[in-house]
Design brief:
Elements (H helix, E strand, L loop, with lengths): L1 E4 L5 E7 L2 E6 H4 L8 H11 L5 H6 L1 H17 L8 E3 L15 E3 L14 H8 L4 H14 L17
Antiparallel strand pairs: 1-2, 1-5, 2-3, 3-4
Amino acid sequence: MKLARITDEVIGLVVTLSDGPHIVDIAKSVGVFAPYDPLSNGLLNGAFKDGGDWPSIIKHWAHLQWPLKRLALIAETCPDHPGLVIQPLVDRNLHGESSDPIVAIDITDMKPREERDPTGRRAMERQFVMPPQDAIEADSAATPETAHIIGFTRPNRDGSSKR
């Protein structure tokens, strides 16, 4: 996901359409969520109503990530949506002022290192690893004390064992 500064005060979302890259004015496009998704509308409106700034976007990325992905999906699948304010990126002169030279940020979402396992090796190791001997002994030691046998057979009226 790529965010870029549209003007000195406004940050937009860069999307790729069939006719090239475009930039979505996030603050003016939050209406695409109303009335169906007021949470996304509120999160993006709160973060970008004054144009947005890089430190607060990074700080609140965990909350802004999902609504921005949804906005990008809407822009890519339905660029003619009446609630979207979108314009070709070639029409924009992206430049940062001297006090804030950051023009764009490209954010790639990755799972934590512990969760990434592209080869499946860690999953196979977990599947075939033997449990520790202590755990086996503790489990077998606890079984006789806690095991109860419950009989579900009903005795005959005369007390015989015939069925």
